[in-house]
Amino acid sequence: MNKLLQIQVPPRVVLDAETAADLMTANPISIRSHATVREAVALLIDRGISAAPVIDDAGLPVGVISQSDILVHNRERVEHVPARAEFFHRSDLSTASGEVLPRGFQVEKVDRTRVHELMTPMVFSVPLKAPAWRVVQEMLALKVHRLFVVDDQGVLVGVISALDILRKLRPEEP
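Given the sequence above, the corresponding structure tokens read:
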């Protein structure tokens, strides 16, 4: 009754990438720093992403806006009860050109907060030619889910997420 104990050893995996350029998703979706929070929410939801780089008018990354930033903003934002009742006469509900708005129209309280007011004002980035192993090492050391990739002029050209790295793992060949 001598049975051999078979232990199946999973294959080792290797990162099938040399540089940040090999890992990155090019042309990342970004948002301007002067966009509204509402625009940021729409962008994140419509594109199915959890964060986006914030860029200035020159295309240079100046921060990151994430779902977490927006949740904290909404939790900490205080709305006071108006000093007087908010009601409108039917005659008040017309456009600048005099067009009367249809029944059911409601006045919306708009959050005028801009992305630059609540973004994380720090961008962790790597150059295009950064070795792939360094990208992984930096993500772990910084405890971040994504790094941005910039060209020689500092312009945002890509993003590397943890998922991008997982996509580049493959079993090591014997």
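Residues 14-79+113-171 form a domain with the CBS-domain fold (CATH 3.10.580.10). Try to locate this feature in the token string yourself.
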